[in-house]
Specification:
The protein is mainly α. The protein contains ten helices and no strands. The protein has two domains: about 90 residues, no CATH class; about 40 residues. The chain is flat and about 75 Å long. Pfam families: Nop16. Belongs to the NOP16 family. Keywords: Nucleus.
């Protein structure tokens, strides 16, 4: 069986490549992308995950952050008379921004699309509450049945675009 020519040839060193830039870009590509923008901007690539999270005041391991109290641990704290020291949070703004973002009201996602709302309003203006005429209308490209028109346009129905909240 013949060999592939490209595999056996001598690999030449490429002098016109910046090795430092290649190494940095490879490290950047290999590192996972952090979804939270607040954490991503405060992240220091030269520090470990535990150090970065400790500086931001976030917990790496929830079991260590909020431990289950054990009787042995309580006795040791009482015998020493000292409480374990608090960790220094150097980047408290990360937690503050995350709390602020979490406290914002959630956008309603249960409404229908703007096009469908306009279409239902148009049909009600032209044909009123006669859902059989809605289903037989020439502009009914979705081929909706009268019952689906009734559900879509009924303001008391929870899936309606006109639902009162």
């Amino acid at each position: 069986m013949p060999k592939a020519k490209g595999k056996s040839r001598r690999h030449k060193y490429s002098y016109n490549l910046n090795r430092k830039r290649l190494y940095r870009s490879a490290r950047r590509r290999a590192a996972p992308r952090i979804a939270c923008s607040h954490i991503r901007h405060a992240w220091d690539p030269h520090k470990s995950v535990a150090q970065n999270l400790a500086e931001m005041g976030l917990a790496e391991d929830p079991n260590k952050a909020v431990p289950i109290p054990k009787k042995l641990l309580v006795r040791k704290v009482e015998s020493d008379g000292q409480q374990p020291g608090k960790k220094i949070v150097r980047k408290p703004y990360v937690v503050n921004e995350m709390e602020l973002e979490a406290s914002l009201p959630e956008k309603k996602s249960n409404t229908l699309s703007r096009d469908l709302i306009d279409y239902v309003r148009y049909m009600i203006q032209n044909h009123g509450e006669n859902y059989k005429v809605h289903s037989r209308a020439r502009s009914n490209s979705l081929l909706d049945l009268p019952i689906s028109w009734m559900r879509t346009s009924n303001p008391l129905c929870p899936g309606s675009c006109f639902a009162v909240s």
